[in-house]
Write a structure and sequence with these properties.
By secondary structure, the protein is α+β, with helices and mostly antiparallel strands. 38% of the residues lie in helices and 14% in strands.
């Protein structure tokens, strides 16, 4: 019979004889060693299955892929710089005091955007008509609505069936009247824009009823394109003026010369031969 450890000693022995059992823990250590060996083998098998040769699936890139990769690598710094510039120029949130907003905005703009007033119907600049471009927040200049999403609702206020993106606006419950409405605000500066209702056209079914005084339109192409066109036209007019000035300097001024009187057919030293000629010449000089 193999020796047993102290833990497997028979319980029917009296306590004074239990200490006489040999403390051979060889079976327990064997079990632990076999378990650890099995775990180590399983771990090595898993690592071996996941290991891959880095040169096994390597393929030589084609010339077109080389060109695209080079182009992408050259364009990536520019795109990163542009995104960094845009992130710096456009803050995520804008916080100003009421005194600062009063200095920036007009009286109507401040009353609507900061005091949550409503402009009269059919009086706004964008209440009716179709436009091209992007509608911005009049307070902070954030992009809010695309002009292509505007529709004629007949309510007297500019209406849109969706914002330019989901992160452009924020919502809040408006309990100022008997009917609970959903207020629409600019997410960047918190300006009050209007309300949204569930009676709009498809595909959203929403009607964003906004105040014209809270919006400003950026024409299609953006401000940069307009500035480039303006500078180009100014350069053309400047070049035209310079060329005209140079041409006027190059052509000399023509001097007006008086033509001498034509000489008479008769010689100047001719004298009348007799008295008859003298009388004829005196008669022809009378008025």
């Amino acid at each position: 019979m193999p020796p047993r450890c102290r833990r497997h000693a028979p319980r029917d022995l009296p306590p004074q004889r239990r200490h006489q059992i040999p403390r051979d823990e060889t079976p327990c250590l064997g079990i632990l060693f076999s378990l650890s060996t099995a775990a180590l083998v399983a771990l090595l098998a898993t690592i071996g299955a996941q290991a891959q040769d880095p040169f096994q699936n390597a393929q030589p890139p084609s010339s077109s892929s080389d060109g695209n990769t080079a182009g992408k690598s050259q364009n990536e710094p520019n795109s990163a710089a542009k995104s960094g510039t845009k992130a710096k120029s456009e803050p995520e949130f804008v916080w100003k005091s009421d005194a600062e907003w009063r200095r920036i905005l007009t009286r109507e703009q401040f009353a609507v955007t900061r005091l949550k007033a409503t402009e009269p119907a059919y009086t706004g600049r964008y209440s009716h008509g179709h436009f091209q471009g992007t509608f911005l927040c009049v307070c902070c200049g954030a992009e809010l609505f695309d002009a292509r999403h505007k529709f004629e609702s007949g309510t007297g206020w500019p209406s849109f069936w969706r914002p330019i993106n989901a992160k452009a606006v924020a919502y809040a419950a408006d309990n100022s009247e008997l009917e609970v409405r959903t207020e629409v605000m600019c997410r960047r500066c918190g300006a009050h824009l209007g309300h949204v209702f569930d009676d709009g056209p498809p595909p959203t079914g929403h009607r964003y009823c906004m105040n014209s005084v809270a919006l400003k339109l950026r024409p299609l192409g953006g401000g940069a394109a307009n500035q480039a066109a303006t500078s180009k036209s100014k350069a053309k007019s400047r070049a035209k003026t310079t060329s005209q000035a140079k041409s006027s300097k190059a052509t000399p001024a023509t001097k007006t010369t008086e033509t001498p009187p034509a000489p008479s057919s008769e010689p100047a030293d001719r004298k009348p031969s007799d008295g008859t000629d003298k009388a004829t010449s005196a008669t022809s000089d009378r008025p």
